[in-house]
Automatic annotation (TrEMBL):
Domain of life according to the entry: Bacteria
Matching Gene3D superfamilies: 2.40.50.100
Ranges annotated as spanning the membrane: 9-27
Protein name, as recorded: HlyD family efflux transporter periplasmic adaptor subunit
Keywords associated with the record: Coiled coil, Membrane, Transmembrane, Transmembrane helix
Domain AprE-like long alpha-helical hairpin: 129-255
Coiled-coil regions listed in the entry: 146-173
Length: 345
């Protein structure tokens, strides 16, 4: 081989080497790893049960049926639950009405700020109605007593006015008689009688004024008693409203729970899937389901499978976690190979 042929051969070798380097840059060479394993699915089975038991009214599916999410599976009836719901609804209506009626009475007051009988005729709570009427009769008795005292004071004031006029006349007569007695023109006995009459009238005036003061004090006590009765009644009614509102809070909370349980009577599928298992008691009309018993087990449709593969130690340095791979599966039953995109966990 001459020098020219040798150079030509060298150029071919260099060109092939460069071509191989370029091809290895653009072409991804994958390792092939073999192993035996099992294909499974993620266990996301949906278990459906009831917080309260009931009786099967209708059932629309059977084991093995394919169902859609939101599809009606069965209807369950719980008569005890419905009776309990109606009982709480009735109690709520009574409490609401009681609060509204008593609040209306508290808002209605006369010019003196006293609770009136307006609205008590239609009051449903007979006990409250009787209490209001009793207190109102007590207040009415106090008001009559006050009216009587006012009348007595008015009479005493008229009498006082008359006595004050009489006293003024006596004083005037005494002033006239005094110089006449000193001069001996008028007898002393007449002057003395006028003087004694003046003292007597003055004493009567003092007694009348004392009586007026006492009766005014009595009126003040009566007014205080009326205010106390009214305030006590108002406080009593306010306490009833407060108690009813507390009971309403409990009743409303209970109703929400019962309504949620009643809504469970229509049983819907939570996922797309297959009915895997049905409670034997639920397969017939009238079957009884206990609280927390399994009613349906649904296997959801899944797109992801798990391949549990045993890898020989000699291949373990060729695989990496989270690596995207192509998985070829060959079954003993079905020799045909199926390929899947996969990720190593």
């Amino acid at each position: 081989m001459n020098r020219r042929q040798s150079d030509h051969l060298m150029m071919i070798i260099i060109s092939l080497t460069i071509l191989i380097i370029i091809l290895t840059y653009f072409i991804e060479i994958n390792s092939v790893v073999h192993g035996q394993g099992v294909i499974t699915t993620k266990d996301n089975a949906q278990l459906i049960s009831l917080s309260k038991g009931g009786t099967i009214q209708d059932i629309y599916v059977a084991e093995g049926d394919t169902v859609k999410k939101g599809e009606l599976l069965a209807k369950v009836v719980n008569l005890d639950l419905q009776k309990e719901y109606q009982r709480y609804r009735t109690q709520k209506g009574y409490l609401d009405k009681d609060v509204n009626e008593i609040s209306f009475i508290l808002d209605k007051e006369n010019e003196s700020g006293l609770i009136t009988l307006d609205g008590t005729r239609s009051l449903s709570n007979k006990e409250v109605k009787a209490n209001i009427e009793l207190v109102h009769s007590q207040i009415r008795a106090k008001e009559l007593k006050k009216t009587s005292l006012d009348s007595e004071i008015s009479g005493l004031q008229e009498k006082l006015s008359s006595k004050e006029k009489e006293l003024a006349l006596l004083a005037e007569e005494i002033n006239i008689l005094s110089p006449l007695v000193k001069k001996g023109i008028s007898p002393y006995t007449n002057f003395l009688n006028k003087k004694q009459a003046y003292i007597k009238v003055k004493s009567e005036i003092n007694d009348i004024e004392s009586s007026i003061t006492l009766k005014k004090d009595d009126i003040e006590l009566v007014v205080n008693d009326i205010e106390a009765l009214n305030n006590e009644l108002r406080l009593s009614l306010s306490k009833i409203i407060s108690k009813n509102l507390q009971e309403l809070e409990v009743v409303n909370s209970t109703l929400k729970v019962i309504e949620k349980q009643i809504n469970e009577e229509d049983i819907y599928s939570p996922v797309d899937g297959v009915i895997y298992k049905i409670n034997k008691s639920a397969t017939t009309h009238g079957g009884v389901i206990q609280a927390a018993d399994l009613l349906f087990e649904i296997k959801p449709k899944v797109r992801t499978m798990l391949a549990d593969v045993k890898i020989l130690p000699k291949y373990r340095d060729q695989i990496y976690v989270d690596e995207a791979v192509k998985l070829d599966v060959q079954s003993i039953i079905q020799p045909k190979i199926k390929s899947y995109n996969a990720t190593i966990d």
